[in-house]
Amino acid sequence: MLKLVVLISGGGSNLRALLEAAHDVEYPARVVAVGADREADGFAHAEAFGIPTFSVPFSSFDGREAWGDELLAQVQQWDADLVVLSGFMRLLPPRFVAALSPRLINTHPAYLPEFPGAHGVRDALAAGVAETGASVIVVDNGVDSGPILAQERIPVLPGDSEATLHDRIKVVERRLLVTSILDIANGTLDLTETTHA
Protein backbone atom coordinates (compact mmCIF):
# COMPACT_ATOMS: atom_id res chain seq x y z
CA MET A 1 0.00 0.00 0.00
CA LEU A 2 1.55 3.31 -1.10
CA LYS A 3 1.42 6.11 1.44
CA LEU A 4 0.84 9.50 -0.14
CA VAL A 5 1.37 13.05 1.11
CA VAL A 6 -0.45 15.55 -1.12
CA LEU A 7 0.62 19.21 -1.28
CA ILE A 8 -1.93 21.81 -2.41
CA SER A 9 -2.25 25.58 -2.68
CA GLY A 10 -5.93 26.03 -3.53
CA GLY A 11 -9.23 24.22 -3.95
CA GLY A 12 -7.80 20.72 -4.26
CA SER A 13 -9.94 19.21 -7.05
CA ASN A 14 -7.17 16.72 -7.91
CA LEU A 15 -6.84 15.97 -4.20
CA ARG A 16 -10.57 15.20 -4.03
CA ALA A 17 -10.25 12.74 -6.92
CA LEU A 18 -7.33 11.02 -5.18
CA LEU A 19 -9.19 10.81 -1.87
CA GLU A 20 -12.20 9.28 -3.60
CA ALA A 21 -10.01 6.75 -5.44
CA ALA A 22 -8.11 5.86 -2.27
CA HIS A 23 -11.38 5.37 -0.40
CA ASP A 24 -11.91 2.24 -2.53
CA VAL A 25 -10.36 -0.71 -0.66
CA GLU A 26 -9.08 -2.08 -3.99
CA TYR A 27 -6.98 1.05 -4.71
CA PRO A 28 -3.37 0.39 -3.60
CA ALA A 29 -2.62 3.84 -2.18
CA ARG A 30 -3.77 5.92 0.79
CA VAL A 31 -3.43 9.64 1.46
CA VAL A 32 -1.86 9.94 4.93
CA ALA A 33 -1.59 13.75 5.08
CA VAL A 34 -2.34 16.91 3.11
CA GLY A 35 -0.08 19.95 3.32
CA ALA A 36 -0.13 23.46 1.88
CA ASP A 37 1.93 26.63 1.64
CA ARG A 38 -1.05 28.64 2.96
CA GLU A 39 -4.47 28.03 4.46
CA ALA A 40 -6.07 26.29 1.49
CA ASP A 41 -9.73 25.65 0.68
CA GLY A 42 -8.75 22.11 -0.30
CA PHE A 43 -8.18 21.26 3.37
CA ALA A 44 -11.97 20.81 3.53
CA HIS A 45 -11.64 17.71 1.30
CA ALA A 46 -9.00 16.24 3.61
CA GLU A 47 -11.13 16.94 6.67
CA ALA A 48 -14.16 15.31 5.02
CA PHE A 49 -12.11 12.10 4.68
CA GLY A 50 -10.52 12.38 8.13
CA ILE A 51 -7.03 13.07 6.74
CA PRO A 52 -4.60 15.18 8.84
CA THR A 53 -3.48 18.52 7.38
CA PHE A 54 -0.51 20.83 7.90
CA SER A 55 0.40 24.28 6.66
CA VAL A 56 3.86 25.80 6.16
CA PRO A 57 3.18 29.43 5.14
CA PHE A 58 5.91 30.84 2.92
CA SER A 59 5.50 34.27 4.52
CA SER A 60 6.64 32.90 7.89
CA PHE A 61 10.20 32.30 6.65
CA ASP A 62 13.13 34.47 5.60
CA GLY A 63 13.55 32.77 2.27
CA ARG A 64 12.71 29.85 0.00
CA GLU A 65 15.42 27.53 1.38
CA ALA A 66 14.33 27.93 5.01
CA TRP A 67 10.70 27.47 4.03
CA GLY A 68 11.57 24.41 1.95
CA ASP A 69 13.53 22.84 4.80
CA GLU A 70 10.54 23.17 7.14
CA LEU A 71 8.13 21.85 4.48
CA LEU A 72 10.45 18.87 3.95
CA ALA A 73 10.58 18.19 7.69
CA GLN A 74 6.77 18.24 7.84
CA VAL A 75 6.45 15.92 4.83
CA GLN A 76 9.07 13.46 6.10
CA GLN A 77 7.21 13.00 9.40
CA TRP A 78 4.60 11.00 7.46
CA ASP A 79 7.09 8.51 5.98
CA ALA A 80 5.35 8.73 2.61
CA ASP A 81 6.20 6.54 -0.37
CA LEU A 82 5.16 9.28 -2.79
CA VAL A 83 4.61 13.04 -2.56
CA VAL A 84 2.04 14.47 -4.96
CA LEU A 85 1.89 18.14 -5.92
CA SER A 86 -1.77 18.85 -6.59
CA GLY A 87 -2.20 22.44 -7.66
CA PHE A 88 0.80 23.38 -5.54
CA MET A 89 1.83 26.72 -7.01
CA ARG A 90 5.19 27.46 -5.36
CA LEU A 91 8.56 26.45 -6.80
CA LEU A 92 10.30 24.00 -4.49
CA PRO A 93 13.94 24.55 -3.44
CA PRO A 94 16.60 22.14 -4.81
CA ARG A 95 17.21 20.53 -1.38
CA PHE A 96 13.53 19.59 -1.13
CA VAL A 97 13.51 18.09 -4.64
CA ALA A 98 16.80 16.23 -4.07
CA ALA A 99 15.50 14.68 -0.85
CA LEU A 100 12.34 13.27 -2.43
CA SER A 101 12.88 12.84 -6.17
CA PRO A 102 11.94 10.73 -8.08
CA ARG A 103 9.13 9.99 -5.60
CA LEU A 104 7.78 13.51 -6.12
CA ILE A 105 5.21 13.96 -8.89
CA ASN A 106 3.08 16.76 -10.26
CA THR A 107 0.27 17.34 -12.75
CA HIS A 108 0.33 20.08 -15.37
CA PRO A 109 -2.50 21.41 -17.57
CA ALA A 110 -0.63 21.14 -20.89
CA TYR A 111 1.01 18.53 -23.10
CA LEU A 112 4.57 19.06 -21.88
CA PRO A 113 7.07 20.25 -22.96
CA GLU A 114 4.50 22.59 -24.52
CA PHE A 115 3.34 25.50 -22.33
CA PRO A 116 5.22 24.98 -19.05
CA GLY A 117 4.77 27.39 -16.15
CA ALA A 118 1.91 28.79 -14.13
CA HIS A 119 -0.28 29.80 -17.09
CA GLY A 120 -0.28 26.70 -19.30
CA VAL A 121 -3.96 26.96 -20.22
CA ARG A 122 -3.85 30.71 -20.96
CA ASP A 123 -0.65 30.27 -22.98
CA ALA A 124 -2.21 27.51 -25.10
CA LEU A 125 -5.20 29.71 -25.92
CA ALA A 126 -2.95 32.69 -26.70
CA ALA A 127 -0.91 30.52 -29.08
CA GLY A 128 -4.06 29.57 -31.01
CA VAL A 129 -3.27 25.83 -30.98
CA ALA A 130 -5.89 23.26 -31.98
CA GLU A 131 -5.08 21.02 -29.03
CA THR A 132 -3.33 21.11 -25.71
CA GLY A 133 -3.28 18.41 -23.02
CA ALA A 134 -2.56 17.23 -19.52
CA SER A 135 0.61 15.68 -18.12
CA VAL A 136 1.88 13.88 -15.02
CA ILE A 137 5.60 14.34 -14.40
CA VAL A 138 8.39 13.63 -11.95
CA VAL A 139 9.41 16.95 -10.37
CA ASP A 140 12.94 18.17 -11.01
CA ASN A 141 14.57 21.57 -10.42
CA GLY A 142 13.25 23.07 -13.65
CA VAL A 143 9.81 24.47 -14.35
CA ASP A 144 7.63 21.54 -15.46
CA SER A 145 10.70 19.96 -17.06
CA GLY A 146 10.91 16.58 -15.29
CA PRO A 147 10.44 13.13 -16.81
CA ILE A 148 6.94 12.58 -18.20
CA LEU A 149 4.99 9.70 -16.65
CA ALA A 150 1.69 10.08 -18.52
CA GLN A 151 0.02 12.59 -20.82
CA GLU A 152 -2.98 12.96 -23.06
CA ARG A 153 -4.08 15.38 -25.79
CA ILE A 154 -7.18 17.53 -25.31
CA PRO A 155 -8.78 19.54 -28.15
CA VAL A 156 -9.21 23.28 -27.88
CA LEU A 157 -12.80 23.98 -28.91
CA PRO A 158 -14.08 27.06 -30.74
CA GLY A 159 -15.17 29.63 -28.17
CA ASP A 160 -13.17 28.06 -25.35
CA SER A 161 -12.32 30.41 -22.50
CA GLU A 162 -9.48 29.76 -20.09
CA ALA A 163 -12.06 28.50 -17.57
CA THR A 164 -13.93 26.12 -19.92
CA LEU A 165 -10.70 24.67 -21.32
CA HIS A 166 -9.16 24.29 -17.86
CA ASP A 167 -12.29 22.50 -16.60
CA ARG A 168 -11.97 19.90 -19.38
CA ILE A 169 -8.23 19.54 -18.76
CA LYS A 170 -8.80 19.00 -15.02
CA VAL A 171 -11.00 15.97 -15.73
CA VAL A 172 -8.16 14.35 -17.69
CA GLU A 173 -5.51 15.47 -15.16
CA ARG A 174 -7.42 13.77 -12.35
CA ARG A 175 -7.77 10.52 -14.30
CA LEU A 176 -4.09 10.51 -15.33
CA LEU A 177 -2.99 11.18 -11.74
CA VAL A 178 -5.13 8.41 -10.25
CA THR A 179 -3.99 5.96 -12.95
CA SER A 180 -0.31 6.92 -12.64
CA ILE A 181 -0.34 6.32 -8.89
CA LEU A 182 -2.07 2.98 -9.47
CA ASP A 183 0.66 2.04 -11.98
CA ILE A 184 3.41 3.11 -9.54
CA ALA A 185 1.82 1.06 -6.76
CA ASN A 186 1.49 -1.98 -9.02
CA GLY A 187 5.07 -1.68 -10.27
CA THR A 188 4.10 -1.17 -13.92
CA LEU A 189 5.53 2.37 -13.72
CA ASP A 190 9.02 2.44 -12.18
CA LEU A 191 10.01 5.92 -11.04
CA THR A 192 13.65 4.93 -10.71
CA GLU A 193 13.79 4.24 -14.45
CA THR A 194 12.09 7.44 -15.63
CA THR A 195 13.87 9.36 -18.35
CA HIS A 196 12.96 12.44 -20.33
CA ALA A 197 10.51 11.68 -23.12
Automatic annotation (TrEMBL):
Q: Where is this site: Raises pKa of active site His?
A: 144
From the UniProt record, list the coiled-coil ranges. Answer: none
Q: Which Pfam families match?
A: Formyl_trans_N
Q: List the catalytic activities from the record.
A: N(1)-(5-phospho-beta-D-ribosyl)glycinamide + (6R)-10-formyltetrahydrofolate = N(2)-formyl-N(1)-(5-phospho-beta-D-ribosyl)glycinamide + (6S)-5,6,7,8-tetrahydrofolate + H(+)
Keywords (alphabetical) are: Purine biosynthesis, Transferase
Residues of the active site = 108
Q: Where does (6R)-10-formyltetrahydrofolate bind?
A: 64, 89-92, 106
**InterPro entries this protein is in?**
Formyl_transf_N, Formyl_transf_N_sf, GART
What EC class is this? transferase
Could you say which EC number(s) this protein's record lists?
2.1.2.2
Q: Can you give the residue ranges of the Formyl transferase N-terminal domain?
A: 3-180
Quick one: which pathway? Purine metabolism; IMP biosynthesis via de novo pathway; N(2)-formyl-N(1)-(5-phospho-D-ribosyl)glycinamide from N(1)-(5-phospho-D-ribosyl)glycinamide (10-formyl THF route): step 1/1
Q: Keyword Transferase, does the record have it?
A: yes
Which positions bind N(1)-(5-phospho-beta-D-ribosyl)glycinamide?
Answer: 12-14
Q: Does the keyword Transferase apply?
A: yes
Tell me which family the UniProt entry assigns to this protein.
Answer: Belongs to the GART family.
Q: Main role?
A: Catalyzes the transfer of a formyl group from 10-formyltetrahydrofolate to 5-phospho-ribosyl-glycinamide (GAR), producing 5-phospho-ribosyl-N-formylglycinamide (FGAR) and tetrahydrofolate.
User: What name is this protein filed under?
Assistant: Phosphoribosylglycinamide formyltransferase
Species of the source: Frondihabitans peucedani
Lineage of the organism: Bacteria, Bacillati, Actinomycetota, Actinomycetes, Micrococcales
Encoding gene, per UniProt annotation: purN
